[in-house]
Design brief:
Largest sheet: 5 strands, antiparallel
Number of helices: 1
Radius of gyration: 18 Å
Distance between the termini: 48 Å
Order of helices and strands: HEEEEEEEEEEE
CATH topology: Immunoglobulin-like
Strand content: 35-45%
Number of domains: 1
Strand order of the largest sheet: 1-2-5-9-8
CATH class: Mainly Beta
Shape: globular
Helix content: 10-25%
Oligomer: single chain
Length: 183
Amino acid sequence: MNKTTPSERPSDEADAKQIAMAKKEGDAYHNSLRYMAEEVADAGGQKRAGDYIVAYAQERAEGMYMPDKSGRLKWSEPTDENCHLEISVSDAGDKRFVPYLTIKATLLPVTGAKIGPFEIPFVWHPGLYHYGRNIKVPGDGRYALHVTIEPPTFMRHDKINGKRYVDKVEVEFANIEIKTGRE
């Protein structure tokens, strides 16, 4: 029997055609996610966790635009950061990206002290919406990545599909290989 998740059930808010379109959007997002995690990043992986699919990708630290105090965008290169950590959170039913989340991550090196927890903010990227940030780690090697997602405070439509994302979610990726540096 194929068990459905709430986002797959037609309702008075989302008919079968809308559910099918949402799944197509999610499939397209996951195609981009697989490309980022498997072909662009140095390391990547994903797991189901509660109502979510949580994925990570790791690259060398990279520059990005940040708003300054006046609201103007200013390019900022990494200083002592040597690792860029990216987290994707998508709905487990339709696989669409879930925005407006509070995400924290902790890295646990095989040897040495833990790094974090640190917040992973949203990053607009031309190829894939995700959460991410540059951090400083001791160096290349194997780490465990612990990700915590707080229950979001956004409203949810739909009496049938809307009762989701209510629990804090924690997921761990063991034995990931991190390569340090700057792009």
